[in-house]
Structure formats: structure tokens, C-alpha cells
């Protein structure tokens, strides 16, 4: 279970550009829940993910995982049990290494990175099977440099890599936003499959309202640092993209744009 | 022939240093100026130790270890205190100048009457057995050492730790995602690189048989030039490992310098030749890149 307790975050404190994003922000995500988060730009979606992952520090407040306070843990310490896929496909893989080396690195996550052989060739068939499940024909390209793959292929590999080892959380930061609609659909279906199979607690930020309603058990809408819509279970299933779109427009009118 | 041997000797001496620069410049994307202090650091340490009666072969691992410590210092300045990469190196380079003088005791320290890894009883009798090989003694020994270092580095880069090192230069977000402290990986990389640089210095010391405090000036440029020649010009020859290309790059670079001197320039012009040649190489390789993009 993930708990964010009274999170405060100011950007550019002490300057004219000071912006208060989170003012007593609270969120509880139970184990195994798949949360989709929508919201306009600057609503604090990515900041929330960054605070969970430790990429930025909150000014005040606590982050608890299964009751344990991780607020003071460094980003790399938290990532030991967090898998994260970024919007930018190049962030989840190493472009100058081949698929095999990338998969090996991910496979060794959580182990000691010492002087053992970097690539365990006995695991090759396992990697091939994993890649085969993508259905992108990558299983025959183990020795291809990841840098020469397309964005969609890279994102698929990145998704596999971030979920290879046992995880507490999967954090998806607009992971389909940089892909063409067809590839985005493939990646989204794959994501759903992995989340269901591994029963991993997932927070997915997306701008795609269809994905937000179609996938996941819970829907959050954020606006100016607070949650203005929180639907789960049957309520969420009834939600339609049009309704969210409508809500979106209302907020914008309130803001005066 | 004498010229060829001298080029090979000089080139191979610098090749190990260039392998270190390959780690910092190409893998970590860190222009490491520490080298200008770390290379003469290895030289003076080796000279002082040999003069004190330490067995020449032992100076190599000791200098490697001492170089690693220097790399760790540069790494800590950069990673912990968040000083920019270039400045971190310059700070270390400047400080090491005085450290080197302290270690040596004076600006110039010869060791002509001492045994070295190239000139000792074992090697002399070994090479004495085969007639005609005496002239190649240093080159052959150097070649063997360089090959050994190259293979160890190749092996290391394939270990888990080595893969992480490559990953941190490639995409440090991924390293964090893997639950590994990217700062620590950078420090390890700098340690190995500077270890290689000091090792190279200790070998160079035994080839030159003296230490001079100014020996380090321009080392980083030589190293970078070797790496760039190795990686840019030999890129098309895909059956060479990059480490091999870097070694060849170092020899090619020394050959270019030797040719320039042969063409009538003075040995006092050496640093100018070094600098100009480096500039020319940078311009040539940049030009190629642009053509590919267009």
C-alpha cells in the first residue's frame, strides 16, 4: 500500500515565480490497484510521480510504503522496488547496447553489480520468450543495438525491462504519449496484460482519456495540485471519455481560459 | 626502423593512458583533465619507488592502485560536491602538480642506473638467447603489457559492473531505475580510468628512465586525440574492438607527431604539434559527422 500524507510542494520558493503546487495533498493506493491519472498540464501529475519515486523532494509530508516511511530514501534506493516507464522511450533503455545486454541489466536488478559476467547466456531463451510475448519480432534481434529500434519497440523493451524483477509499484509516466496511435494501443494492451499477470500496484499518468476510462480500476483527475475526481469500481466502469472531457472543459472555463 | 620502434614504444606507452581516457571521455562522457596530473604522478611514483629499491614489476600494480585513489578524489569532487566535470579535473591536475614535486623532492629525477621492467636480468637473458631480438626488447614487453591490459579491460566491460559503467554514460536514468547509485558508478569509472593513467605513467617512467615535472602537460590532449582517432577513423573496421582501435589510435597519433618532427620541426615544438594535431583531428572528425547528417 502506498500512502502520501499531507504533501506540500512549492516551486521556486522566495521568488516572484513562486508557485504552490501541493498544499496538503493526500493519496492512498491499496495493493494491486491500477490507478489511471488524468489532468491538464501543470496539474501536478508528474510531480506526484516524481515525489513518489524520489526524483524530487517534497517540502513537507510523508510517503509510506506498506506502513514504512520512505520519505528520506534516495531515488535509487526507492527504485529497487519500483519499476518506472517514462514518456521518452530513450529513457528506459541504453541505446548503445544491444537488447540482450539491456535485458541482462534489467534481469540483474536488485542483485550486486560486481564482477560476475554481465550477460548470463543461459537466460537467453527466457529473454527470447519475453520478447516473443510482445509480438514485435524482437526475439530475433537480441544482438541489435537498442538505439536503432523504433520508439515503439524501445518502449516495449523498456516496459519489459522495468517489470522483469519483482516489484512493489509500477509507475507509468505518459508512457504512450510519444508513440503513434497504433503502437500506443499495442503498448497499452501489453501494459494491461503485465499489470494483470503480475498483480502489481500501478499508477499510470496519461493524456489519453480513452485509456484512462478503459484500463485500470480507479480513475483520478488532478487539477492545480489536488484530486478533483476519484472514481473506482463500478463508478469508474460507467465513466465515459466524453464525461471526463466535459469536466476538463469546465475546469478550463473556471480558470478563465 | 629506429624511428618505427621509437614510435611504437611511445605509442604503446600512451596507449594504456588512452584506454583510461576512453573510459572517461567515451563511456562516461567526462572530459577528465586529472590525467595531466595523474600521468606524471605515475611517473614520479615509479621513479621514486625504483630508486628506493622496489622491484620494477611491483611499481605497476602500486601505481594503478594509487591512480585509482586519484580517480576517486576527482569523482568525489564531481559527484558529492557537484563541481563541473572539467573543473573537477582541473582542480585535481593543479593540486597534483605540487603533490608530484613533493613525492619526487625536486623537478627532475633520473634513474638511469636502475633495473626496470624493460631492462633487468631476467629479460636481458631471455632476449639475449635469441639473436636479433635485442633491439625489440622494449617494444615486445610493452606490446605484451598493453595486450594484457586491453584484455582485462575488455573482460571488465562485460561484467555486471562494466555494463553498469557503460549504462551510466549512456543513460543514467536507467541506472537509477535499476536501483543503483549513479554517482558511485561514475566514481568507479573514474577510479579505473585514472588507475590506468597512472599505470601508463609508471611504464613510461621505466621506458624514459627519468621524471620531469613538466612531463604531464598535454597528456589529456594526447589521450583524447588517440581515442578520437581510434574511434572515428577505425570505426568502419568493425572487427576491431573499440579498445583495440584506441591502442592503434595512440600509436597512429605518436606516428603523426614523429613525422611532424621528422619534417624539420624542433622537439621543443612538441606541445604545439600535439595541440595543432589534436585540433586537426577534431575538425576532420566533425566534418565527417556533418556529411553523414546531410
Protein model, in words:
The complex is a heterodimer of chains A (257) and B (294). In chain A, 34% of the residues lie in helices and 24% in strands. Chain A is built from 9 helices and 10 strands. A 6-stranded mixed sheet of chain A has the order 6-7-8-3-9-10. In chain A, strands 2-1-4-5 form a 4-stranded antiparallel sheet, with no helix packed on it. The mean pLDDT of chain A is 88. By secondary structure, chain B is mainly alpha-helical. Chain B is 75% helix and 2% strand. Chain B has 12 helices and 2 strands; from the N terminus they run H-H-H-H-E-H-H-H-H-H-E-H-H-H. A two-stranded antiparallel ribbon of chain B has the order 1-2. The longest helix of chain B is centred in the middle third of the chain and has 27 residues, at 182-208. The model of chain B has no long low-confidence stretch (mean pLDDT 90). Classes of the chains: A alpha/beta (257), B mainly alpha (294). Chains A and B meet through helix 2 and helix 3 of A and helix 7 and helix 8 of B.
Q: Please, what is the average pLDDT of chain A?
A: 88
Largest sheet of chain B: 2 strands, antiparallel
Q: Major sheet of chain A: size, sense and barrel closure? A: 6 strands, mixed
What low-confidence regions of chain B span 5 or more consecutive residues with pLDDT below 50?
none
What is the strand tally of chain A? 10
Beta-strand content estimate of chain B = under 5%
Order of helices and strands of chain A: EEEHEEHEHHHEHEHEEHH
Summarize the structure.
Chain A is of the alpha/beta class and 257 residues long.
Amino acid at each position: 500500500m502506498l500512502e502520501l500524507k499531507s504533501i506540500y510542494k512549492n516551486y521556486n520558493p522566495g521568488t516572484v515565480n513562486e508557485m504552490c503546487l501541493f498544499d496538503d495533498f493526500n493519496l492512498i493506493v491499496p495493493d494491486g490497484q491500477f490507478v489511471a491519472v488524468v489532468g491538464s498540464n501543470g496539474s501536478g501529475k508528474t510531480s506526484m510521480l516524481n515525489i513518489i519515486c524520489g526524483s524530487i523532494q517534497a517540502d513537507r509530508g510523508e510517503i509510506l510504503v506498506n506502513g514504512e516511511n520512505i520519505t528520506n530514501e534516495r531515488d535509487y534506493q526507492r527504485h529497487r522496488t519500483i519499476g518506472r516507464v517514462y514518456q521518452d522511450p530513450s529513457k528506459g533503455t541504453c541505446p548503445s547496447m544491444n537488447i540482450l545486454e539491456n535485458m541482462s541489466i534489467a534481469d540483474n536488478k536488485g542483485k550486486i553489480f560486481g564482477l560476475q559476467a554481465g550477460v548470463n547466456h543461459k537466460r537467453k531463451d527466457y529473454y527470447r520468450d519475453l520478447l516473443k510475448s510482445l509480438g514485435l519480432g524482437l526475439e530475433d534481434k537480441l544482438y541489435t543495438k537498442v538505439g536503432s529500434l523504433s520508439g515503439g519497440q524501445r518502449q516495449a523493451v523498456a516496459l519489459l525491462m522495468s517489470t522483469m524483477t519483482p516489484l512493489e509499484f509500477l509507475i507509468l509516466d505518459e508512457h504512450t504519449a510519444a508513440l503513434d496511435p497504433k503502437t500506443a494501443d499495442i503498448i497499452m494492451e501489453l501494459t494491461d496484460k503485465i499489470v494483470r499477470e503480475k498483480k502489481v500496484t500501478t499508477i499510470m499518468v496519461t493524456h489519453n482519456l480513452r485509456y484512462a476510462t478503459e484500463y485500470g480500476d480507479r480513475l483520478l483527475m488532478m487539477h492545480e495540485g489536488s484530486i478533483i475526481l476519484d472514481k473506482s469500481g463500478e463508478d469508474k466502469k460507467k465513466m465515459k471519455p466524453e464525461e471526463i472531457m466535459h469536466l476538463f472543459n469546465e475546469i478550463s472555463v473556471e480558470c478563465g481560459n | 626502423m629506429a624511428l618505427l620502434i621509437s614510435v611504437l614504444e611511445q605509442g604503446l606507452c600512451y596507449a594504456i593512458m588512452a584506454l583510461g581516457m576512453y573510459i572517461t571521455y567515451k563511456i562516461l562522457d567526462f572530459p577528465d583533465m586529472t590525467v595531466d596530473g595523474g600521468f606524471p604522478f605515475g611517473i614520479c611514483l615509479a621513479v621514486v619507488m625504483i630508486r628506493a629499491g622496489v622491484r620494477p614489476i611491483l611499481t605497476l600494480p602500486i601505481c594503478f592502485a594509487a591512480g585509482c585513489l586519484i580517480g576517486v578524489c576527482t569523482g568525489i569532487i564531481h559527484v558529492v560536491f557537484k563541481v563541473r566535470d572539467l573543473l573537477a579535473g582541473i582542480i585535481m591536475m593543479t593540486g597534483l602538480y605540487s603533490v608530484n614535486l613533493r613525492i619526487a623532492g625536486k623537478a627532475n629525477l633520473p634513474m638511469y642506473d636502475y633495473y626496470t621492467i624493460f631492462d633487468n636480468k631476467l629479460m636481458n637473458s631471455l632476449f639475449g638467447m635469441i639473436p636479433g631480438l635485442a633491439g625489440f626488447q622494449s617494444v615486445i614487453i610493452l606490446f605484451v603489457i598493453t595486450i594484457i591490459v586491453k584484455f582485462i579491460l575488455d573482460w571488465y566491460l562485460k561484467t555486471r559492473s562494466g555494463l553498469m559503467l557503460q549504462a551510466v554514460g549512456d543513460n543514467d536514468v536507467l541506472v537509477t531505475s535499476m536501483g543503483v547509485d549513479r554517482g558511485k558508478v561514475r566514481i568507479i569509472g573514474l577510479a579505473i580510468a585514472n588507475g590506468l593513467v597512472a599505470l601508463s605513467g609508471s611504464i613510461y617512467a621505466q621506458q624514459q628512465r627519468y621524471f620531469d615535472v613538466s612531463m604531464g602537460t598535454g597528456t589529456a590532449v594526447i589521450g583524447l586525440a588517440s581515442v578520437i582517432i581510434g574511434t572515428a577513423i577505425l570505426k568502419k573496421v568493425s572487427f576491431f574492438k573499440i579498445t583495440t582501435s584506441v591502442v592503434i589510435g595512440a600509436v597512429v597519433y605518436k606516428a603523426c607527431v614523429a613525422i611532424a618532427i621528422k619534417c624539420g620541426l624542433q622537439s621543443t615544438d612538441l606541445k604545439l604539434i600535439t595541440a595543432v594535431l589534436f585540433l586537426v583531428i577534431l575538425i576532420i572528425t566533425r566534418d565527417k559527422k556533418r556529411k553523414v547528417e546531410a
